[in-house]
Write a structure and sequence with these properties.
By secondary structure, this protein is mainly α. It is built from three helices and no strands.
């Protein structure tokens, strides 16, 4: 019984960590996209903003691996399947898209 509880807790913390990191990366990528496209005539159509979100996705996997190696959270990136990678990409892109849309619509500059 104690092992099942510990496994459930570890699984929950893993999911929470992956979701939190993907969400924060998406929001930070939106701010980054807003910053790097600030001088562009049409920031919404600039490909540089898209490059920022791709970089945010790529950077997450070494961070998750470092968290797992440090023993902070039981996240093993080597055990990730296609579903896990797609989840991280989808969450990051979704938060980036919504956040950057809000920033572009309101005309926020940094």
């Amino acid at each position: 019984m104690a092992t099942e509880t510990a496994d459930a807790r570890a699984s929950h913390l893993r999911g929470l960590t992956v979701t939190t990191l993907a969400s924060l990366a998406g929001i930070l990528a939106a701010v980054g996209s807003s910053v790097v496209t600030a001088g562009a005539a049409e920031p919404a159509t600039s490909r540089i903003g898209l490059y920022v979100v791709v970089a945010a996705v790529v950077v997450q996997f070494p961070i998750l691996e470092a968290l797992g190696r440090a023993g902070l959270v039981e996240v093993d990136v080597e055990d990730f399947g296609a579903k896990d990678y797609l989840y991280v990409i989808f969450m990051t892109f979704s938060l980036w898209f919504v956040s950057w849309t809000v920033l572009l619509t309101t005309g926020t500059t940094f």
